[in-house]
Design brief:
LRR_TM_domain-containing, disulfide bond, Ig_sub2, alpha/beta, Leucine-rich repeat, LRR (right-handed beta-alpha superhelix), about 10% helix, 17-stranded mixed β-sheet, about 20% strand, disordered C terminus, disordered N terminus, five-stranded mixed β-sheet, binds 2-acetamido-2-deoxy-beta-D-glucopyranose, Immunoglobulin-like
Length: about 800
């Protein structure tokens, strides 16, 4: 068991990637000869045997061993046989050694003093020369300081274990004389700095375990002297970032672990200095995004771990590009990771194993599969997978006629744990195994979906700080994303399904490049050209994949932000409330206080009829705020029949709507219901109630009449439009409620005058039941798109 110790230490340090060093040792252990008797006079209570032993460079020895472990010894038992090779004194109560005794052991190669009470290393090394000692175990003692030349009496030492002590200072020349040291474990101590001078005496060092020390920053060129170092473990240190030259000089480094630190970005610049790196462990850090070019130039990288990151939300386009040796990629157990860009992995010609289980992924785009020619296995279980067209490649019979050989390749990829790789959407396929669903069962449509894990419903930010909101959505075809600010400003590309009226609808802002938002841009209101002046002169930045950044946040940026993802099939929206904390007041105030700073917008919006045709009418409105739950309802006004009321949701940031499928020569009443959001529980009830529906009435044009009957001026307010209409038709009478939703009284009155018209045949949407089944919602989205 004791032989396996180095392996266990490695595992403890979570450096799974560097276990490769020890694996061969373990392999041999299976076929080991057992201990042989050793006929010497053994100290009482100890066991003396010939036992198998491996040197640090993995050479097998039959070692005369004295085992005095776990005996609560306070002093050494005698006599120790002179030919002792291994002396085990683990788990005793020793605080000093009779060094004269050790002096009589010229062949001692392995001395284990771990789990004792040594507080000074001098009491061991003083005056005793141990010319054969290769391995010294001093872990779990009480050492607090290493003086100069601490180990100079052990010139052959190859392994030195000092982990789990109280070391808080190490003299610059503490390791002087250890010319042959291969492994140094000083992890889990109380060191707060790393001194480059320590390592000058260690030209042959191959493995350095430094993790578990509270070092917040590494100095530049900390490891410059370690030309032979192959494996470096910097786990659990509290590193927040890495200086550009922190890793300079590590020319032989193959394995590097940053497990459990506080890195917020991949330390790309520092990693560029370790060109030979093969194994990289970035697990359990605070990285939010894996960004384009993060692993640039790491052409020898074979295995990469990006697991257990609480904050990781997205793997961006070309995040891993041109890594010709990469064979294994692990991105698992990241609870917020919901998005992997279809082109996230480029030129990874040797990638064989892709581990993506236990994230929040709804799908893995087919492009990802097609871009990995050597892929053999993929692990996707424990994700909320969407079994629709995004996942067609994985379906049981994905060999569709229109799918080329690429899909076939994807089919050959082995699923790890296929029995646990289940659909969670759509409802009718829930809990089915992905690989057993046929492509016929998978819906052909791919509406955008913004995963709930990527955007929280509330984000607090300090005044003057930087606000970053990540919105991502997968769909086929790829969706466009835009944001709507609290003041109703739309940030993003102009609607692609733009008007025919306006020849070139000036795009408000393009997402394909970084931009500055200034007051010259206008809100793109869909079909109607409008020029609502953009009051804000604030600097917003929209990054390519849908991230909104606001620098130097002030109270006027507080409020509701809505992300909209849209493709030709439909749209999805998600809103987040941003609260701005004052600088002086720390966190004492509750949410209410944060929202006190919400700018006060007009609570109403003027609904106008912009254009009326035989079968359609274009309505537009202006509102100085973001109202993501806005609905439009309309009904025909007939004499006798009870006419149905139709409702449609309006996408956030939209300021006009083309009502289609209307009956000709018919009166309609349309109301705009301004809504904020289900998610905005932070907004007071009173404020919500204060938003009243805006209504307007009009009459569609006469069927096939050549002359234009009614030209409505866009300048007219709703009341004026209504008055004008009824004045023309009835020559008198204009009773207009204006802001009552039902308006029953007025309706009754008009009904007596109106002639009968058949009820409309074309039903658009009847969406009175909010929060109905998902399918209905999808239909709503689909229809919504047709209409607008
Ligand atoms: C030490 O090992 C050498 C070579 O194996 C051997 O010749 C010598 O006798 C050993 N020393 C003692 C004190 O046993
Ligand atoms: C954004 O605006 C700032 C200052 O107004 C300017 O320095 C910068 O160049 C602008 N960036 C772009 C991409 O236009
Ligand atoms: C509104 O919809 C109708 C019917 O689909 C269409 O004929 C008309 O061109 C649309 N108007 C605009 C401005 O898009």
């Amino acid at each position: 068991m004791r032989i396996m110790r180095p392996t266990l230490v490695l595992l403890q340090s979570q450096c799974l990637l560097c276990v490769f060093v020890s694996v061969c040792v373990l392999g041999v252990l299976g076929s080991l000869p057992h201990a042989l008797p050793w006929h010497v006079s053994c100290p009482v209570r100890c066991v003396c045997q010939i036992k198998p032993w491996f040197s640090p460079d993995s050479v097998y020895h039959e070692a005369p061993t004295v085992d005095c472990n776990d005996l609560l010894l306070t002093k050494l038992l005698l006599p120790i046989p002179p030919n002792t090779h291994t002396l085990r004194l683990q788990s005793n109560l020793l605080s000093e050694l009779d060094t004269a005794v050790l002096h009589g052991l010229p062949n001692l190669t392995d001395l284990d003093l771990s789990q004792n009470r040594f507080s000074r290393v001098w009491t061991i090394t003083q005056s005793s020369s141990l010319p054969s000692l290769l391995s010294l175990h001093l872990e779990e003692n009480r050492l607090s300081h290493l003086p100069e030349a601490s180990f100079s009496s052990m010139p052959a030492l190859q392994e030195l274990f000092l982990s789990h002590n109280n070391l808080h200072s190490i003299a610059p020349g503490a390791f002087t004389g250890l010319d042959f040291l291969l492994r140094l474990h000083i992890n889990n101590n109380r060191l707060t700095t790393v001194d480059p001078r320590w390592f000058r005496a260690l030209p042959r060092l191959e493995v350095l375990m430094l993790g578990g020390n509270p070092v917040e920053a590494l100095p530049e060129q900390a490891f410059l002297a370690l030309k032979s170092l192959r494996s470096l473990v910097l786990g659990g240190m509290g590193l927040r970032g890495l200086a550009e030259k922190a890793l300079e000089g590590l020319d032989g480094l193959e394995s590097l672990s940053f497990y459990d630190n506080l890195l917020t970005k991949v330390p790309t610049q520092a990693l560029k200095r370790v060109q030979g790196l093969k194994f990289l462990d970035l697990n359990k850090n605070r990285i939010k995004l894996i960004e384009t070019g993060d692993f640039q130039g790491m052409i020898h990288l074979k295995e990469l771990g990006l697991n257990n990151m609480e904050e990781l939300v997205s793997i961006e386009k070309a995040a891993l590009e041109n890594l010709p040796e990469l064979t294994k990629l692990e991105i698992t157990n990241n609870p917020r990771l919901s998005y992997i860009h279809p082109q996230a992995f480029l030129q990874l010609s040797k990638l064989e194993s892709l581990m993506l289980n236990s994230n929040s992924l709804s799908a893995l785009h087919q492009h990802v599969m097609l871009s990995l020619p050597s892929l053999q296995e993929v692990s996707l279980h424990s994700n909320p997978l969407r079994c629709d067209c995004l996942f067609h490649w994985a379906a049981e019979d994905a060999s569709h006629p229109h799918n080329e050989k690429g899909t076939q390749t994807a089919r050959l990829v082995r699923f790890i744990q296929p029995q646990a790789t289940l659909c969670s959407e759509p409802p009718e396929l829930r809990a089915r195994r992905v690989r057993e669903v046929s492509s016929r069962e998978m819906s052909a449509s791919c509406l955008p979906m913004i995963p709930t894990s990527s955007l929280p419903s509330y984000v607090g930010v300090k005044e003057g700080g930087k606000l970053v909101l990540h919105c991502r959505a997968l769909a086929e075809p790829q969706p466009e994303l835009y944001w709507v600010t609290p003041s109703g400003l739309r940030l993003g590309p102009a609607p692609s399904h733009a008007s025919k009226g306006s020849a070139a609808p000036a795009p408000c802002l393009t997402a394909s490049e970084r931009f500055n938002y200034t007051s010259t841009s206008s809100i793109s209101p869909g079909q109607v050209q409008d020029d609502i002046p953009c009051k804000s002169s604030k600097l917003y930045q929209l990054l390519p994949e849908g991230t909104l950044e606001i620098n130097k946040v002030t109270h006027s940026e507080a409020g509701l932000y809505t992300c909209v993802a849209e493709n030709v099939l439909g749209a999805d929206t998600r809103s987040v409330t941003v609260g701005v904390h004052s600088r002086e007041t720390k966190r004492k105030r509750g949410l209410g206080a944060n929202l006190k700073g919400f700018p006060l917008f007009r609570a109403d919006a003027r609904l106008e009829v912009r254009e009326v045709g035989e079968h359609y009418a274009i309505l537009s409105w202006q509102s100085g705020r973001n109202l993501p739950l806005t609905r439009l309802s309309w009904h025909a006004i007939y004499s006798k029949f009870h006419t149905p009321t139709y409702t449609t949701r309006i996408l956030a940031g939209t300021q006009s709507f083309n009502l289609t499928h209307l009956q000709a020569e018919t009166f309609y009443r349309v109301c705009l219901h301004l809504g904020i959001s289900e998610g905005t529980k932070h907004v007071s009830r009173r404020r919500r109630e204060s938003i009243k529906p805006q209504c307007v009435s009009f009459r569609t044009k006469d069927a096939s009449e050549p002359q234009p009957s009614l030209q409505l001026s866009p300048e007219l307010t709703s009341t004026a439009v209504t008055l004008l209409l009824f004045a023309i038709i009835f020559l008198l009478l204009a009773v207009q409620g204006g802001d009552s939703e039902h308006d029953k009284e007025a309706e009754k009155l008009y009904n007596t005058f109106l002639r009968e018209i058949n009820s409309p045949k074309a039903v658009i949407i009847n969406q009175k039941t909010e929060g109905s089944s998902k399918q209905q919602k999808q239909k709503e989205k689909l229809l919504l798109h047709q209409v607008c």
